Queue: 4 jobs
Job 1
Amino acid sequence: MGIRNIFSRQAKERIKEGLEVQEKQNLEVRDKLAMDRTKLANERTLMSYMRSAFGLLVAGLTFIKLFWDDPVYVWIGVATIPVGILVAVWGFHRYSKTKRIMEEHTSTYMPTSPIRTELVKQEKLDSSE
């Protein structure tokens, strides 16, 4: 006597329906976690740009301060400061662009489970009032 013979047909159908609901909920959790990972990756990328920009600024100031009597190093220092500022601006631009795209995608996302869908609809109604 196997496991197949233990459950009645109705019990099997209830278990199957429960598994389908659980699968939908698991997909929603996975989607939410994937979006959170994407947001964190975007923030990490911004911090990397800022770290690089800060390093270039400090390097430029160091060249100017330590080698003030050698014009070649002073010009290298003067050149790295604007590059550092450009890296910071470019990094913030990319961060903002990616954040905007993610917000557009998340605003159009609608969960699939009935309970979650009703909650989201109620939240949207409450926020619009």
Note: Helices lie at 3-6, 9-66, 71-108, 114-128.
Job 2
Amino acid sequence: MTHDHSPISSSISGLFRGLALLLLLALALPALADKPGDDRAIDGLEEGRILWDVTLGDPERLIARLDVILETREDMQRQGLEPHMIFAFRGGAAGLVAESTDHLDLADADAVERLHDRLQDLQGLDNVHMEACSIATRRFDLGQRDLLPGIELVGNTFLSIMGYERQGYSTIRID
């Protein structure tokens, strides 16, 4: 059996893939419009303050969690809350927020670069702050100069969690 790899065949194949994607989006949009609210839980709130306690050291799984975090932010906005988010990287996650991937397994390098792009996108949003624990970064021999731009090195994220909870942030573990 032979396959036609002509430009016309490729264009038709791409057209069908595009139409299939549009169909899937069209089917998904009504589901998003019908997404239930969280009225009881957020009654009386004007802001949503979440501290994401990030320890997950697997870049692919962390990217997937960041997608859910972004959806959470969008849900807050959709329901009239002003989102405030702090990301505290500790444990294995602290090694993922370094600019260089030299200290990581080579197999993870592509995923880590995609993770860095996602973190940069999140940093561009209002009311987002990111910090990394110096106790955890020590394991990877990383200092402030090694971290991605916009990620602040702090002494101890356990103290950060304590302090931010006193300021009204709810802590959600990402592990």
Note: The longest helix spans residues 7-33.
Job 3
Amino acid sequence: MTTSPADRAGERPAADAELDQLASDFERLMRLLRRATAPDGLSLTAASVLSRLDDLGPHRLSDLAVAEGVTQPAMTQLVSRLERCGFAERAGDPADGRVVLVRATAAGRDRIRERRRARAAKLRELLAGLPDEDRAALERSLRTVDRLAGPANDRPAGRVGEHEGGTTT
């Protein structure tokens, strides 16, 4: 791999600096979303798992671990906590009796949906202070972000195409 004189001199190309800024902007957006969520006793990972189960249906524990970027033992502990709270349950896979799937209970779905409603109310307040053209620009930008993080990127690794009807096999 060759390096440019600017790289050798310790300077970084402008494109790298722009990507660094974009990453920083995304981090600020994520902090904003965390602040827009009132404390409700759910960790970020627990909320993410419940959201995934609500949006995409039952998952294998190992697929949840991969999707959330945690170890399988850590996910086992998290799912056990969600079960004790009544937010998730394990059930056999009707297609393969050897497989155990994790799914959100009605209480878990209610909890994550209430969390979303509370966050939406807070965001509504924040967005109300923006001019119409800024809100429109934000909406366009979020559609682009949605394409980046769309359904194919929500599926557990190695399971693409196996979520027909919102379930994982």
Note: The two ends are 43 Å apart (CA to CA).
Job 4
Amino acid sequence: MSKKMAVPGDVGPDVRLVEDDLQQVLGYQMAQASITTTRVFMEAVGRPFDLRPVEYTMLALIQKNPGGSAAQLAKALAVTAPNITMWVDRLEARQLVQRLRSETDRRTQRLQLTAKASKLMTQATARLLAGERQALDILSAAERAYLVELLQKVASCRAAPIAVDAVATEPARPPARRRKPEAA
């Protein structure tokens, strides 16, 4: 009798491994959550619009910050200048982004979306938000807002220094439960 090997797509959400200490590891929980959000992104935006998550994010940032520079994008996304240049080149080749010379500093190029990209972003964002609401309907509107707020706080810590040697080696205790926000 042959056994079928399990691949990630074959494992249902009800199949669980013992996670023990991983339950307290924020990075693990975020990685598990990203499996869901990545699937939603790919179904709602990635495949229909042929966009990668980084491309969508760049377009969204350029849309809300027209005239910004590639250096600003690189810093916001924590990537290198050559890496951001490669992504901008790809978006420009697809006629989604325009590089415009700065009027005040001719060495600087400013980025803006094309009309094609503006239309695409309106559609893509609407589809993405609807897909997330549907996939995450286990959360109330208030819980979703609270989760977004907490994730923004986590993201704001990305530049904070980390003193690994000062980290305690004893097992972490579960934090005291906070009261959930009222359901909307």
Note: Residues 26-49 form the longest helix (24 residues).
